[in-house]
Amino acid sequence: MFSDITPDPTIHTVAKGIAQMQALRPQVVIGFGGGSAMDAAKAIVWFSQQGGLPVDTCVAIPTTSGTGSEVTSACVISDPEKGIKYPLFHEALCPDMAIIDPTLVVSVPPTITAHTGLDALTHATEAWVSPQATDFTDALAEKAAGLVFRALPVAIRQGDCIATRSKMHNASTLAGMAFSQAGLGLNHAIAHQLGGQFHLPHGSANALLLTAVIRFNAGEPRAAKRYARGGACRFCPPAAGEQEAFRALLTAVETLKQQCAIPTLKGALQEKYPFSYREFPPWCRPRWPTPPCAPTRVRSMARPSRNCWRTCNE
């Protein structure tokens, strides 16, 4: 067993895992844990295979409900010395088997339940407005989002409710399937930087940014219409106009964040996390609903120090 896993698995962790793989030469590898454990397992297996080590099967068993890593062709590895997170993408990174067992998450504390659940919601909403979204990813993303809105507040209060935990576990996997095909966007691009520089938990970073990024993305007409459709589906009468539906969605997200005890973006980041703009990862840009050729718009969300994301909180 390789258990030398830390939150946000590092290059060093992966290297140690590869060394153990070479020593043990297993035919089956099981990634058991939250997103960090599964991402580490996926990276270790993939790099070992590139080095000529045959691995027949990679199994992912999530013990949190949020990352969706058990069904995605992606993982994130960090370099703590540089303060950078590296998202890796390759079809071979997708596990061969995923076991979705809600009994494994009943003991997850409320705070982690909240943060991971909002990570799943972020996956769903970003896939929802991606330019690469399809009817299939829409179905996955919309179902995942609906499950999170209904089940997450209950899962926080009643963690031992298997039915609710099952809904959240399913939502996480559905959202993972959606973004694995449609891609992610600005929310994750910024969250990865926050996590890399300040070691802020990934789900927490996404939750802090979610409402601000939705508002920002809605400046693009196509994204605004898709957000509004989501609001109309769940939070207001069918006859509601686009603006009313969009406001209903924002209100629902803000209400959920309050139920999860997520602080405001401005309050959390203005002093504690002074953030300096630098280039966002190019892997994310083609999938943003906002034009990738508008860096000044993105920069407006990343003012340094006291003005950090000021435009998103006015």
In short:
The protein has 314 residues and is mostly helical. It folds into 2 domains: 1-99, Rossmann fold (3-Layer(aba) Sandwich); 102-312, Up-down Bundle (Dehydroquinate synthase-like, alpha domain), CATH 1.20.1090.10.
Describe this structure in words.
The chain has helices at residues 11-24, 35-50, 110-128, 135-157, 162-182, 186-198, 202-217, 221-234, 242-259, 265-269, 295-299; strands at residues 28-33, 57-62, 74-79, 84-89, 97-98. The chain has 314 residues and is mostly helical. The chain has two domains: 1-99, Rossmann fold (3-Layer(aba) Sandwich), CATH 3.40.50.1970; 102-312, Dehydroquinate synthase-like - alpha domain (Dehydroquinate synthase-like, alpha domain, Up-down Bundle). The strands form two sheets. It has a three-stranded parallel sheet, covered by helices on one side. A two-stranded antiparallel ribbon has the order 3-4. α2 (35-50) links the parallel β1 (28-33) and β2. α3 (110-128) packs parallel to α5 (162-182), α3 (110-128) packs parallel to α7 (202-217) and α7 runs antiparallel to α9. The longest helix is centred in the middle third of the chain and has 23 residues, at 135-157. The protein is globular, with a radius of gyration of 19 Å. The termini are far apart. The model is unreliable at 271-280, 282-287, 291-296 and 302-314 (pLDDT under 50).
